[in-house]
Amino acid sequence: MEDWRALLEAEKTLDTGVYTKHDLLIVRGQGAKVWDAEGNEYIDCVGGYGVANLGHGNPEVVEAVKRQAETLMAMPQTLPTPMRGEFYRTLTALLPPELNRVFPVNSGTEANEAALKFARAHTGRKKFVAAMRGFSGRTMGSLSVTWEPKYREPFLPLVEPVEFIPYNDVEALKRAVDEETAALILEPVQGEGGVRPATKEFLQAAREITWEKGALLILDEIQTGMGRTGRRFAFEHYGIVPDILTLAKAIGGGVPLGVAVMREEIARSMPKGGHGTTFGGNPLAMAAGVAALRYLERTRLWERAAELGPWFMEKLREIPSPKIREVRGLGLMVGLELKEKAAPYIARLEKEHRVLTLQAGPTVIRFLPPLVIQKEDLERVVEAVRAVLT
């Protein structure tokens, strides 16, 4: 390989600067581990921001991509392909029967963008309701229903009107969702907002109130889907079915893929050509998606998340540090909230213990390990956290 330091420097100097770059060059990944250019091994609890649920270099996804790349990589949705139909059939077979129309895109923010447009087309209404601390993406539409002011304020005005309510506040929900509301959009677990799970009461009330007011319920499962929370999809914990479900990240097994899945009557409300995407539904991503869904179903990785997640959270709670405020999460989507800034501890976990984690707000260390992670690796993560906090 060309001198890796030169390549790292090229990325840092030629990049726009939007991202704060780490001082390492990741060259390879397998399962729940990655390696840098010097051969150092890391336990990856970033997981590509939730993309790597099935593990880095998942062999079944790799093989599917190889086969499809040799056959057909690009084809617009006006021209049907076998793999697109296979993906639609595989995905909808895992969902409630009313979620039976699929709009494929390339990412999570695009899936939410599509969901917002379908909601307006179907209801004829303009208003959206979203949650404080919620995160739906950074394109202009999905940014409109993202709470964090630092993301929103430089780009105002955005899509309006949008009303933000406190998460898990049923009374605020009742006041906000009205006859002018096109849709309520919520994450079953707020990821960027600090790894905060919804209460059952809140999501069930969201379903009842939207039905009552003729608004749609959009559940953003871009991070919580594909087994992350201990079920195939997080809405299964709550006994509800949304009108539109958005998925991305892990659904492509590492290949860019997102979808908005909806009821038939919502799909039919969009005028012909009312929305579109050049790369969405391309055969390569569809092949990766089929392989990812079949691997998840065959291995039942959500059961690993349901077992390892509570154990991992309990071990983190046992760390005797006065710096810890709370450990919370659902499945293997875990947040450790501190009483001070998290960034210095995230840096120490990387540099001193070769454990990669990420932030969820200024004081929360977020863990999104691949669901294939071994228990002994999670034990190493616990010991690393113990070392930097005590």
From TrEMBL:
Source domain of life: Bacteria
EC number annotated for this UniProt entry: 2.6.1.118
Pathway: Amino-acid biosynthesis; L-lysine biosynthesis via AAA pathway; L-lysine from L-alpha-aminoadipate (Thermus route): step 4/5
Places the protein is found: Cytoplasm
Amino-acid biosynthesis recorded as keyword: yes
Molecular function, one GO term: transaminase activity
Binding site for substrate: 138, 277
Reaction(s) the record says it catalyses: [amino-group carrier protein]-C-terminal-gamma-(L-lysyl)-L-glutamate + 2-oxoglutarate = [amino-group carrier protein]-C-terminal-N-(1-carboxy-5-oxopentan-1-yl)-L-glutamine + L-glutamate
Keywords: Amino-acid biosynthesis, Aminotransferase, Cytoplasm, Lysine biosynthesis, Pyridoxal phosphate, Transferase
Cofactor note: Binds 1 pyridoxal phosphate per subunit.
InterPro entries for this protein: AcOrn/SuccOrn_fam, Aminotrans_3, Aminotrans_3_PPA_site, Class-III_PLP-dep_AT, Class-III_PLP_Aminotransferase, LysJ, PyrdxlP-dep_Trfase, PyrdxlP-dep_Trfase_major
Binding locations of pyridoxal 5'-phosphate: 108-109, 135, 220-223, 278
Gene3D superfamilies reported for this sequence: Aspartate Aminotransferase, domain 1, Type I PLP-dependent aspartate aminotransferase-like (Major domain)
CC cofactor: pyridoxal 5'-phosphate
Main location as per UniProt: cytoplasm
Modified residues (N6-(pyridoxal phosphate)lysine): 249
Protein role: Catalyzes the transfer of the amino group of L-glutamate to [LysW]-aminoadipate 6-semialdehyde, generating [LysW]-gamma-L-lysine.
Subunit (UniProt): Homodimer.
Cross-referenced NCBIfam families: argD, LysJ_Th_th
Family: Belongs to the class-III pyridoxal-phosphate-dependent aminotransferase family. LysJ subfamily.
Protein name, per record: [LysW]-aminoadipate semialdehyde transaminase
Source organism of the structure: Thermus composti
